[in-house]
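Lab notebook, bench 4. We co-purified these components, and the gel suggests they stay together. Before we commit to crystallization screens, I want a quick structural picture of the whole thing.
Request: model the full complex, all chains together.
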Amino acid sequence: MGTRAGGSSNGGRRRNGGTTTAAQPAAGAAMRAPDRTDTARDAQSGLSRAQRLELYYYMRLTRSLEERLVNLYRQTKVVGGLFRSLGQEADAVGSAYALDRSKGDILSPLIRNLGSMLVQGARPAEILRQYMAKGDSPTRGRELNIHYGDLVRGFIGQISHLGDMVPVMAGVTLSFKMRGQDRVGLVYVGDGATSTGAFHEGLNFAAVQRCPLVVVVENNGYAYSTPVAKQTAAAQFLDKAAGYGIAGERADGNDVLATYQVTKRAVDRARAGGGVTLIELLTYRRKGHAEHDNQSYVPPGEIEHWERENDPLDRYSRALLASGDVDSQELAAIDARAQQEIDAAAADAEAAPMPVGPDALVGVYADPPAAEMLWFRSGVTSAVAVHERPAGWGTHDA
Amino acid sequence: MPEVTYLEAIRQALFEEMERDPSVFCLGEDIGAYGGAFKVTEGLQARFGEGRVIDTPISEAAIVGAAAGAAHMGMRPVCEMQFIDFISCAYDMLTNYVATARYRAMLPCPMVVRGPSGGYVRGGPFHSQNPEAAFLHTPGLKIVYPATASDAKGLLKAAIRDDDCVLFFEHKYLYRRIKETLPATDHVVPIGKARLAREGRDLSIITYAATVWKALEAAEQLEREDGLSIEVLDLRSLLPMDDDAIVATVRKTNRVLIVHEDTRTGGIAGEITARINERAFEWLDAPVLRVTAADVPLPYAPPLEDFVLPQTADIVRAARQLARY
Ligand SMILES: Cc1ncc(C[n+]2csc(CCOP(=O)(O)OP(=O)(O)O)c2C)c(N)n1
Ligand SMILES: [Mg+2]
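Here is the predicted assembly.
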């Protein structure tokens, strides 16, 4: 499996590989003098200092990248809609961080899980190219926004039809089981997507098969304009776990370390053969369904309340500073680094070419020439070359 | 009378039918206070209340299945698919349950499933679909796909009053782009009747939905540049299909070009061609040709989408070839 440098400066980044010090008493940590070495572990999460800073980096990268996308959208350089995860960065980043990429774990994000893709190694330049429908975007302009995947880096692109990725990830993780692989899958669904038939069937199948799958229900209060109370009569999504006969947990999705820890437990359980876990992460969608949505249906003050009291980046930077082993200059340096990466990526993406029409006709089947040229367009030549996958984009066993 | 958009015409039909018949109700995702993703149902819940304009969970199979059950009991539900692409999630309910209900169990299903359809909007593969052909093959369903504001209103009223299930496809590209003054009276357009959108002598273009406008554009250009007189037949009902109108135009011009936005293989053009062969073969002076989307999922990038979908220039080129034949 390829180990792609994620572009972050944390060279040999990745995961504590199962070692955990979570059993240490929290009180002891408070009495110790701050340890500023990168390997110093946090008693609660078991994460090293470097890892905790990395979490911050991915959250910041997510937010800044989306802010750049907003600028591009306003300049009409984004084709189609723009979907934000403002205020939800912690739940996507913290949960994805609990996977072990060195083991080949795979996740399937939804529209508000840009952060989880970045953790798995998706690059800002790819995201920007996708949104701008560029010819050298990962899907060659065929699919929109973050709908793309890379099995090597460990993420599978969603389709729009909500819930569909749950059965797909049941199958992905079933294959891990069938081949005796030590790998885990994670699939995100929104509160709204839990109402689909596909969600139910996929989750039930995975549960029966005891697939190594973690299902994260991202409860952000709304599905488009529909509040959770109109989506389910259950008091909490967590309650559904019992009905499927699987483990369930619930956590504060705006606390990145809590999100990491709850997911890590589920990942460990899955890897140990304990089957599926449903995790409900509580968060809040601060922006509209997409940029066009004016959120007229949201009670006054609600958005402002979450912005003021429960912004995941504010909370996490405060926690890092309070821990005493991180200082504000370090965080500012990470902010600047994320910004620089985005600036460079945006310049690249803007300069990238659009696809050309005939490129549309290739790639439907494995054995080209797949699509026949339209008879009334005779004289136009097909660009069969783009049938190839983008460099470094492949199947796991290839 | 002010001019009314295609979208507003649909909204008016819903309003008037709910006003007229208390058994009519609407259900779908975000259709209540929010008024739907495209605002087609705006104001409906304020007028008729949450009991008759129901926000559902994201459950298309339940929307359609529950509509069928309510319809059995004498209600007349109108289901909204937020995008028609999601009708696939209710395919089982529609084709197995709803379509067979009358035949198999003498159970009526007077219901409508409507939703924004079609491309030319940079919506990508899952917000641009034209799934009509997938349902044309199912006896028991009716399908309409209007191209004008007047037909949108009149056909929706007919669909709501129909005693069987009608799939009502709305072209989202047309929602706010076309306007018309509508008849002041209770305007109902019968299902199963085509509309002659333009009269001509030399060649017939048979089409429906957004490509009606492309065909009309092409017809004007062909008249201007080639002196060709083009007839444009807007089917507007796909199931049942107006065979008489099709045969009449074939007899008149003897050359037929079929245009649709959906993909080619298994598309409705094939069915129309077969009907022409059966009923008017000896009236043809040339083979029936078709201009359709290419057989690929509809891509997102503007140059790709433009290339895949039928454009006016394609229709002009094909019509010239057919006229020369
Ligand atoms: C099967 C299906 N029906 C309808 C839609 C249209 N749609 C797209 S997103 C959305 C709301 C999703 O809400 P939720 O699952 O809570 O995710 P969130 O947007 O809050 O992250 C809807 C109704 C869809 N994509 N798929
Ligand atoms: Mg939600």
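Chain B touches chain A through 45 residues (CB under 8 Å). Worth comparing against the SEC data before the next meeting. Chain B has a mean pLDDT of 97.
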